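Hello,

Our lab assistant flagged a job as stuck in the queue for most of the afternoon. It eventually completed. Since we weren't sure the result was trustworthy after the delay, we are filing this so someone can double-check. Below is the sequence as submitted and the structure that was eventually returned. Let us know if re-running is recommended.
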Amino acid sequence: MLYLFPLVGFGLLGVQPWVNVSTLTRDATAVAGGKFYHGLISNLGVLLWCATASVSLFSAWLLKARGEQKTAVFAFYAGLLSLFILLDDLFMLHEEAFPNYIGIPESVATALYPCLILAFLFTFRKRLLASSFLVLVSSLGFLGLSMLVDVVAPNQTSELEYLLEDGFKFMGIVGWFLYFVHTSTVLVNQRIQEQAGLGSSKPVASGSPTPEVFTPNAPLALGIQK
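-- returned structure --
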């Protein structure tokens, strides 16, 4: 059962008549006949989107399992938003798929992302303001500058325009990654410490091992004896 869905999926890929199987299974650079470094910064950005989505969604699961429902909702929607942007960046949805295959104009699809981000900011404004919010603000600023360059020069004709648009975008992705990974770590750590504190208030039976309390520096202290 574990491999049933992948097997069915590959079976469907093998019988569909529209696209060669190799086009769907091989690396995009290999299909296009490009070099290994083609799309380097874009690929790094996709990895950071993926890391942000993974950490946020996993943190949401941990927080929900530990009874932090409201905090889990925040982490879940942060992960969901990052995942949506990841899929758009990876498959060029607003540039290629939406206009050419679904019929949604690129301008409309592009405007969707600021709307989603603004909705997220408004919904969780109190929690965001209580965190390292300036990092997220700087991230959104860089992403906004990238979109501005794209609007001012939609048909890039110089390497400088590419450098500005993609450079601002990558800086924004880095900031997004740093903010949500740090925030997720803080939220999970706080909940673990709270539960450890509650547990330590109970009487410990004689001879029972002392419960360990997780701290941010715990991984660094492993194996170090003073």
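-- support follow-up --
The delay was a queue issue, not a problem with the job. The result is valid. Residues 38-198 form one domain. The longest helix spans residues 159-200.
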